[in-house]
Amino acid sequence: MRHLHVANLRKSYDGLGVVAGLDLEIEPGVCFGLLGPNGAGKTTTLRLCPGLTEPDSGEITMLGFSIPEHAREARARIGVVPQVDNLDPDFTVRENLLVYGRYFGLSQRVVKARIPELLEFAGLAAREHSRIQTLSGGMKRRLTLARALVNDPQLIFLDEPSTGLDPQARHLIWERLRKLTSEGRTIVLTTHFMDEAERLCHRVAIMDHGRKIEEGTPRELIARYIEPQVVEVYGDGAEAWAEAYGRRASERCERTGETFFCYTQDADPIVHALDREPSVRYLHRPASLEDVFLKLTGRELRD
């Protein structure tokens, strides 16, 4: 049974189609990424799927339940990590888990039995009795993730799980999320960090203007849309170098701000030429999911 099925999902606000005919099929035990610029419809989709927002039309089936008709029953079996942590500052770490478990109708005995494992998962066993105000941003984010597991869900929705975290905290969150999928749980996440999606997601869907414009594994999408090698060129002489050599030496050469992105099958000639140019600096790297994202959604700033 698919953990999430979405067909021709639509939602408009003030006549503007925020989600415009979205189709998704998410299998058990995968991490599925919803990617898109600001305003693409990602967060609205994450609210529509568990029935937190009612769609204008379309079909949603989650864990075998039809949404929104049976949203209450379905939500009892999922976990949600919102974009902004909403932990209760009046409670300790332990009390936040205990009270949240009671929202699901779980007995105090059941929740208490799960708390040690959840604290260990979050790396907060030593902070069990700490007030929320004393926790770092990374600790709060890990506690919010652990709290979403209090009802032992098989499907977990995460809205930008690592925004605002330092690199150490991000990597710890990533390790915890990989552990969840290795246990057979399904994760649906949104993120603006393409390296996060490339590391964590088995499949991704790229959205823009409420529509799904592409879907596949990160590796499939990179191979489908982007030349294998990328050279980023910047510095005082970058524009002159690009006009004199870079644009004709690469299959594609695009500019964003002060940086020229040269996409090519073979970067060696470009790199050798750059080594003779003291007025420019460069970064040579393999193509990434971020390159796919920018090619499909554009490089212009979104508000």
Helix-strand blueprint:
Blueprint (H helix, E strand, L loop, with lengths): L3 E10 L2 E11 L4 E5 L6 H7 L8 E6 L2 E3 L3 H5 L2 E4 L11 H11 L4 H15 L14 H11 L7 E5 L7 H16 L3 E5 L3 H7 L2 E6 L2 E6 L1 H8 L3 E6 L3 H12 L2 E5 L2 E6 L3 H7 L6 E6 L2 H9 L6
Parallel strand pairs: 3-8, 3-9, 6-7, 7-8
Antiparallel strand pairs: 1-2, 1-4, 4-5, 9-10, 11-13, 11-14, 12-13
Helix pairs in contact: 3-4, 4-5, 8-11
Explain what this protein looks like in three dimensions:
It is a single chain. A 6-stranded mixed sheet has the order 6-7-8-3-9-10, sandwiched between helices. The protein has a 4-stranded antiparallel sheet with strand order 2-1-4-5. Strands 12-13-11-14 form a 4-stranded antiparallel sheet, covered by helices on one side. α6 links the parallel β7 and β8. The protein is α/β, with parallel strands linked by helices. The protein contains 11 helices and 14 strands. Helices cover 36% and strands 28% of the residues. The chain has 2 domains: 219 residues, P-loop containing nucleotide triphosphate hydrolases (Rossmann fold), CATH 3.40.50.300; 60 residues, Alpha-Beta Plaits.
